[in-house]
Amino acid sequence: MTTKILVIEDNPMIRREVLTWLQLEGYEAIGAANGNEGIEIALQERPALILSDIMMPDKDGYRVLSELRTQPTTALTPFIFMTAKQEKVDIRYGMQLGADDYITKPFKREELLSAIETRLVRRNLFIEDSDRKGRDLRQHLLHMLPHELRTPLIGILGIGELLSQDAHTITPAEITEYAEMITISGRQLYRLVENHLLYAQLIIAASDLEKASIINSAAVEQVVPIVRGKSEEIAQAYSRTADLQLDLQSGAVRMAREHLSKVMHELVDNAFKFSKATTPVQVNGEWQQEKYILTVRDQGYGLTAENIARIDAYMQFERGVYEQQGTGLGLTLARRLTDLYGGSLQIESTPGAGTMIRVSFARHPA
Hints:
The chain starts with a strand and ends with a strand. By secondary structure, the protein is an alpha/beta fold. The chain has a 5-stranded parallel β-sheet with strand order 2-1-3-4-5, with helices on both faces. Strands 6-7-8-10-9 form a 5-stranded mixed β-sheet. The protein has helices at residues 12-24, 35-45, 61-69, 88-97, 109-165, 172-206, 209-215, 223-237, 257-273, 305-309, 319-322, 330-340, and strands at 4-8, 28-32, 49-53, 79-83, 101-104, 244-248, 281-288, 291-298, 344-350, 354-362.
């Protein structure tokens, strides 16, 4: 399939020359004489790359780029400016709008073709990576999600049938036992659904600046009660209260209470889930200048550098070896929540030696 390139240039001599160069290289080259025409052709033809002049009547190159970046079909299309303007402020402004490269007139044929080839190679690598991630996601969802949904549902339905069939012979002690089993399965299913809903909300918030600004204005007045309470709750659930080590400085950070609780739940739960009983899980919090640094350390299985780089929604590693339960959303949710509030999440891990997760929170002005 021929690679399609759009050239937006109001100077007819330059436009014809560039189109000729591209056609000789085997590209399908399309010309546009002004910004309005360029936008219309770009949306219709969906080129693999766009070359555009900056100084044009009606709509200049900046305006063309800004409008195309708002359209789903051209938001990620490589965009190279062709211009005689060499001031750094103009170059910086174009890059801030989303330009991929800048080539200054007059330019040589080899210079232009080299810039085009570089951007097309990067575009193809991005497409291949996106396709790979899509295949991985589909594979994980097909193999993992049905199991995670069925397991608690089968437990609830099975116990319900036992209660229905043996209602006249079941003892009070058995009823209590069955009720606990139903509650455990129900909570597992509830957490699964809640994680999916939260992940969807964070995806929407990431592209909605107004909503994101409302969310990240929230504050927690005291970090310690939430971090301590959630950590102790999880340690108790794993029957490992003696393994939990807490060292926390007090203060207020910029994050909603329920979101901080969620971050802590996912990080501490992972630390206990992937480490053995009698090994410590350390949760430390301290102020470093204007940042509250929270670290969660364990001496568990650990992750390779490759696995850390691949952490994403619905991704799990060595699921069969470690008999993992869940969907792999935990770390992704924690990272997206900290990003939303202007924080950061970093992971350091050594296979067989454990993992340290370091979360940085912004101080709340109050």
